[in-house]
Amino acid sequence: MAISQPLLHNLANVLPQGPAISVLSIGSGTGLLESLLIESLDDSYDICGVEVSPKVNKYLPEQDMFFVGGTWDLCPQAGKSHVWVFTYPREPKLIVQYLELHDHANLSKIIWLGPKMDWQDYEGVFASSRFSHLTVLEDCGAATYETVVVAEPRQARRAYMCSKHENAPDAGDATLIMPIIDHIMLAWLLCFVNNSRGCSLHFWTVLSRFAKDWFAVMTPMETDSMQRYPSALQHKELRDVWNHASFLVHIAYDLDWAVRQFELLERAAPNCLIKAILLLNIGIISCLVAEYRSAETAFQKVLPLHPFLAPLAHYLLGVVRFELADYEQAQISFKLCAYILKQTDHNRPYHHLGLDFTLSYRLVAENEEIAAYEWTLKQKGRYGFRLLNRMPALLVFSSTVLNDKVELCCDRTTRLQTPRSAVSSSVFSTPSDSVLSTAKTFDSPASGPALDLGTHTSPVIPWRPFKKPMVPRAAQAETSNLRSLAHFLKYTGPEASQATRATEVVNTPEIAFPAIGHASIPTRRTGSVRQALLQVSEQADMSSLLRKASTLTLKKTSSIRQMTKTVFNTPIDQLGAVNVDQSRGIERGRVIRFLVEPIQQFAGTNTRIKKPTEIAFFSYDSEHKLKPLDNESLKYYYPPFFNIPGHHDNRFPVDLSKGYDSFRQRDDSGDEHLDGLLDTLVETEKRNGKKIEVDLVTWRGMMTRILTAPYEMEDGFEMNATCFQGTIYIEENHAYKAAAREAQKARFSRSRGPPQDMAMYWGYKFETLSLLNKPWGETTREEIEGREDEVVDNYAQYCSICRTEIGGASMVIGGEVDGVLGYKPDDPQAPARWVELKTSKQPEHERDRWVLDKKLLKFWAQSFLLNVPKIIIGFRSRDGKLLNIEELSTQQIPSKIQQQGTYKWNGNICINFTGQFLDFLKQTIVGDGVWRIRREAKSTAIEVFKVEETGTGNILTQNFIDHRNKLLAGEIATALKDRGTA
Fold it and tell me: Which residues form the RAI1-like domain (predicted)?
């Protein structure tokens, strides 16, 4: 656990107050965190630790420690403690057992500290217990890969809030969740209504105005209790963000870009509820652009985030799966929705508002016929109307925010009897005359005057579901005043550094800047927030920011996608005074930024690429000595033996941990720069008698970082670059690499998985089991069958050096290849059948599959850059047993991910991004000096800036510099000689 003063302060604040509060830390380890907490608290707190071995504890007094017989033994003291703290627990079952045996009335809180990636495994444990009110502490002082969650009994939490704020409504989460759900439902409905060209111009205009007025409405809970009910503040902030993002959907009409904006908002969500709401929007808008697989993934992510949203998520999953013709899974989703509402209290928030939430889920897939399935929200009252009763029932949702005395009814007799691929116009149609005749007026006395829908009619046109809205130009002109919210403004506060303080403006046609008021959104200053989220500090004057922004001369663009290419950042005091070169990125002082987000700006084009061709190679021998243009360390792939019929001495599965004690591990902590690559290029040029002319020279690892940058936001990177004789040379920044490696070791040491050294050894062991030192025909049977007993080492390596082109940038890339299938051809133009060997944990559930699909992005990028056609993955168990082997075609991985992947990524976007970024580097890194290429973790931009004004640093070897200078002198002498002869 990364311990910091802010973390201690936040933990102290969440502990309950009282005369004698006992805290039990289960898995206290050295006791450092607990001892520091004791120092920061008064004597009313009694903090004790629980461990297996007394040798582990170093900081807690002996009288404050309890010891158990093993990792699964329970400490009886838990039955007397007011607070439990679980720090990096090993298994969710341990918490389950503690709750089953030692839960008691005085237990008020459970604090969970651990890696973010593990929280999914534990959230269900708390959600199914009485400690289902979960609060994720953001920016609490923990490391970026860690999270702190406070679990409290829901009733106790509500009583605590009401006792603290006497006039606060005792409504639990109902009054918070329902308005947000209504936002989503009505917005989706309006999207579909706008989609129908059968709607009259007047009707569309009124609906847009209605949407704008509706978004401005505040519920009584928000107006009366905003200052007294702190948790409502988060939802007010969400509503402000939602207002802007909604207008991007309804007014800007670029749903692809809007999906990406919601994804950025979701990454920066301050808690699970807001994250779930944003995921719902991602799924809904994905449906509108017919990205049903993406929608399915988004709705699945909602399920574990908040119990009250689980019925809605199951319902939407059913809708999407029906669109995908997966009728069996759709049936299951609808049944789960109905079952949850019937068997649990998840319907309670809807009943609290007087709503009746019912669901019909009968499907008859064989005949392509379904009974109408709908979400019916009904409330009794004086006012009522029927809305769009001819529209398919799944589109009819209700809003209780406009008026708490509104009755919305769905036609439960609607039947869809035609195949989804060929929708009948008689069923899927939205006749405006019918709409206007059944809903002449939106009767909303509580929120303002009624909105007259008029009597205009238009011909019936078949309604096409899930298509991008098609809005007449005249309608756009009449609603130009609504475009004012199709932009984002951000100010991070006066304390922000010059590198992070900026205003980001999206160029929109004829923008008018309204006084939209002050909003404070406390979120981390990460790149994704800077790119997507409206941020205004509490000290900032919103109206003054808008006045400054309105002085900009905005250029007309045709779509949001084009707008994103003209986004620029500048300090607020320099607004309007920056000169942006589109091809070079965004210049801010000496720092030039290349925007990675939104990644959809790199879609839709095909960057020219040239197949990598090997121009040189080298080996590191068994002592790791460089041997240029030598095949000594070349290995040959032959699959490992295990579970062979008739061979009883072969064990299955194979233990990848065998031989770990004799592992010859090379110390790679030194900085090797580009030495091996450059020395081999020198020998190659001497042998060929000519210089290799390219734009860029680097290791494969650097290019992999760049190629995967659109989707790899969690980890940052730093590289050093220099330009020498017109060629850019890029290496990894060794100091950053060393720091990242230490952080990774610390993360591994606290995780539930294997130690990092052991996990790394498993990979080398799999290579030893799968490779031969000579071609198969020259290898004896004893050598093949004895590979399991060989001593594993990582000294010897074979590296291939290839020339390739991506876009307008030619490059030389060097990287290690594990082995070759069969033999290496003598003709350098003939492609070698290289293989890339990887190990990964055998997927056991959906989360493991997601992790593997994310790994496949890196696997594909590494192999793509060196033209490695085959990737061989050895799947292992948690304890390092080799279970099975799978061979993948590098070329087919991107399409496989698009069709079946749970973690979606697009190889074409990666290639297009790389082509544009390399062009940007070619124009940026020029002249003498050393440059830094940096991307901070979760940042939406890559920064390039100079760190040394002269020289090349240690990137280039003196031998390489002398060699190239000699070649240059020879070229000059030859040119002068030819000129003199002429």
Answer: 610-960
**Percentage of the chain exceeding pLDDT 90:** 23
Contact between 854 and 740 under an 8 Å Cβ cutoff? The reply is no
Structure tokens at 67: 């010891």
Alpha carbon 841 to its chain centroid, in Å, reads 21
Whether 860 shows a pLDDT value over 80: the answer reads yes
Residues in the chain: 982
Between CA 223 and CA 605 the distance in angstroms is 49
**Residue extents of the structural domains in the chain:** 5-164, 174-452, 487-576, 609-963
Long-range CB contact pairs, 152-160, < 8 A, 24+:
152/108, 152/109, 152/110, 153/108, 154/130, 156/108, 157/133
Is omega for the bond preceding 598 within 30 degrees of 0, making it cis? yes
DSSP string, 423-448: --TTTSB--HHHHHHH-SEE--GGGS
CB 96 within 8 A of CB 79: no
Q: Do domains 5-164 and 174-452 have the same CATH topology?
A: no
For the entire predicted model, the pTM comes to 0.48
174-452: CATH architecture = Alpha Horseshoe (1.25)
> Which tokens belong to 261?
């904006």
Give the CB-side neighbour count of residue 65, counting CA atoms within 13 A: 21
Question: Please, are residues 70 and 52 in contact by the beta-carbon 8 Å criterion?
Answer: yes
Contact between residue 619 and residue 632 where contact means Cβ atoms under 8 Å apart: yes
Mean pLDDT of 469-476: 32
Phi and psi (nearest 5°) for 812? -115, 125
* Long-range pairs for 772-777: beta carbons < 8 A, 24 or more residues apart: 772/635, 772/636, 772/637, 772/638, 773/635, 773/636, 774/636, 775/636, 775/822, 775/823, 776/636, 776/638
Torsion sign across C-alpha atoms 284, 910, 899, 881: negative
- Residue, of 198 and 81, whose pLDDT is higher: 81
User: Do 229 and 161 meet the contact criterion of CB atoms below 8 Å apart?
Assistant: yes
Q: How far is CA 214 from the centre of its chain?
A: 31
The first and second tokens of residue 698, run together, are 């680097």
More confident residue, 940 or 643: 940
